[in-house]
């Protein structure tokens, strides 16, 4: 009697009411109906309320003129651009701080996590203090701390300008400084690539490919003979020297846009704004404290026999960590690491506290100027979900690659 | 997870259903027994809280005037402090009954956002404040400056238009809250602070050294500030608008907080009608208010001139001159329709 359909003892078909598969379908259909009804209710309510408040709805407003300026734009933008373009600028700013923050947080977190396991008493304690400090403060406060901190520590722009003016008056040959760190941000000479610079990029790409090829060859040689050619040294030399040689051969095709001290502000050159700096530092250092704990847990999760075996074979401890322990620890580290990356991206929406024009801040401004609250919030949600899902997919792929493969 | 989504959806649906039950704002306000007024909490002279938590300012007085007109009691008002960004959703959602938060009346806010504006309780214009040591005499010298501005304001748009039309460069430093803009300007993050000129006078006083800052002469925009209500409720709209006009009319008639009882005996038929002393007059009742609604307003906050001087004029630290806000027969723009 291993049959799936419900029959009673006499072999007759039982009432549909007692058929498990029918009941399962019925429950699911009911759930779909209830959820569908609720969505419809919410939607029609919103539409009705909007109509009653004499408000228009729809995404047509996105093609309207924005009318406001933004402090930082990675693409051409002016007040004549559309709302849609303003949102794109905000999205790019979000991605910029998210990507740079993830890279920095990973490096800092890895170092701190390994540092906490150090046998050096001082390093281990310092790393513990770092983790406990940043992990236990809400991210918004960390951002406030960095913004107020960055603004109050950095020297006043006008004082710098007065100093430079004085130096110029004393010695006319003195020019404007190349790098200026002030409460207006960090300014630096921005490179302008001349037409011949393309060859340098090509050389760089060739050097990277060459380095990869050499490393693969080195792996093969090592597998065959047990002796490893100096792959790292050759790769670094290739990547540094080849583009450099092409650069000089092409006649240094690069110019710089130098920062100029204006009456009020700096003009020209590149500028890292204090808003970006504080948000980036806050997000990186905050998330790094969580990543450090994940790394420590990952390393602790590798059986100590692995390390002892390395010691017994005479492998130096730094090599043991790099070649034996970390690769195994990665399998434990990656899944929770993904959550931290997602957290960092989502926390970047707190940018509004530091005045950084990210997606949420630009959206806020649009929401205000156009009054399209529902539409703007829908765009926010869709964009954040998309970014987070893409990050997840990438991390899952990475995890699958790093997972233990049975041979 | 599914449960959570369900809960949110149920919440959304229930909220929507709840918001549907509304006859008219005047009836709603009367039924709940107090007026919910959206205000600024950080702009001294217009809407701010003193050390004991009491609200004061020109916009606050307008809220009190409406409460006095509806209930005969100016204390029956609750204030909701709102940021520039939150003020419109708060009014749209019905969280507040009226918005009196130094809000500029513009065509798009009147049409697209679904609000109604009519009374203007302060005629303002956008200006610039800079540090004295910069030695700037005109806004046209400001090219290259970093400008602090609050997001979600008409100020932000005027700023972009002004600098663009004069071919000037600038670097906007934008914050959501006025306190954040104040702090950034104070910390030297930007050279220029721009907002409505009345706001600049008020903010200058809150800076560590008010005398180190000057307000430039240029006014780059028209900013008629006034109360807003939701569109489509003209009865309530009339009550709010005429609460302001009653204050203006009182000033024109020379009726003050001190002499209002005395003025009831005035032989002037206009004044008698205004104060509800005319036989058979139904002005108050037609608004859905009591006969002595205007008397209650004047008793609560005085006439427009008194409220102005007390909050932003000579009786206040701001010492703003009447200027555009003088009565129409004294060279200003404040003009009340005849109350008859």
Fill in the keyword field for this structure:
heterodimer, A: 407 residues, mainly alpha, MetI-like fold, 2 domains, 3-stranded antiparallel β-sheet, two-stranded antiparallel ribbon, 12 helices, 5% strand, B: 340 residues, alpha/beta, D-Maltodextrin-Binding Protein, domain 2, 5-stranded mixed β-sheet, 3-stranded parallel β-sheet, 14 helices, 15 strands, 40% helix, globular, Bact_solute-bind_prot3 (chain B), SBP_3_CS (chain B), Solute-binding_3/MltF_N (chain B)
**Which stretches of chain B are poorly predicted, pLDDT < 50 over at least 5 residues?**
1-21
The beta-strand count of chain B equals 15
Helix-strand sequence of chain B: HHEEEEHEHEHEEEEHEHEHEEEHHHHHH
The helix tally of chain B amounts to: 14
Query: Order of SSEs of chain A, N→C?
Result: HHHHHEEEHHEEEEHHHHH
Total number of strands of chain A: 7
Pfam families (chain B): SBP_bac_3
Family (chain B): Belongs to the bacterial solute-binding protein 3 family.
Organism (chain B): Xaviernesmea rhizosphaerae
Keywords (chain B): Signal, Transport
Structure overview:
Chain A has 407 residues and is mainly α. Chain A folds into two domains: 245 residues, MetI-like (MetI-like fold, Orthogonal Bundle), CATH 1.10.3720.10; 55 residues. Helices cover 66% and strands 5% of the residues of chain A. In chain A, the strands form three sheets. A three-stranded antiparallel beta sheet of chain A has the order 1-2-7. In chain A, strands 3-4 form a two-stranded antiparallel ribbon. In chain A, strands 5-6 form a two-stranded antiparallel ribbon. In chain A, a hairpin with a 2-residue loop joins strand 1 and strand 2. In chain A, helix 2 runs antiparallel to helix 3 and helix 10 runs antiparallel to helix 12. In chain B, helix 3 packs antiparallel against helix 13 and helix 9 packs across helix 13. Chain B starts with a helix and ends in a 29-residue tail after the last helix. With 340 residues, chain B is α/β, with parallel strands linked by helices. Chain B has two domains: 228 residues, Periplasmic binding protein-like II (D-Maltodextrin-Binding Protein, domain 2, 3-Layer(aba) Sandwich), CATH 3.40.190.10; 96 residues, D-Maltodextrin-Binding Protein, domain 2, CATH 3.40.190.10. In chain B, 40% of the residues lie in helices and 17% in strands. In chain B, the strands form five sheets. Chain B has a five-stranded mixed beta sheet, with helices on both faces. In chain B, strands 5-1-6 form a three-stranded parallel beta sheet. Classes of the chains: A mainly alpha (407), B alpha/beta (340). Chains A and B meet through helix 1, helix 4 and helix 11 of A and helix 1, helix 4, helix 6, strand 11 and helix 7 of B.
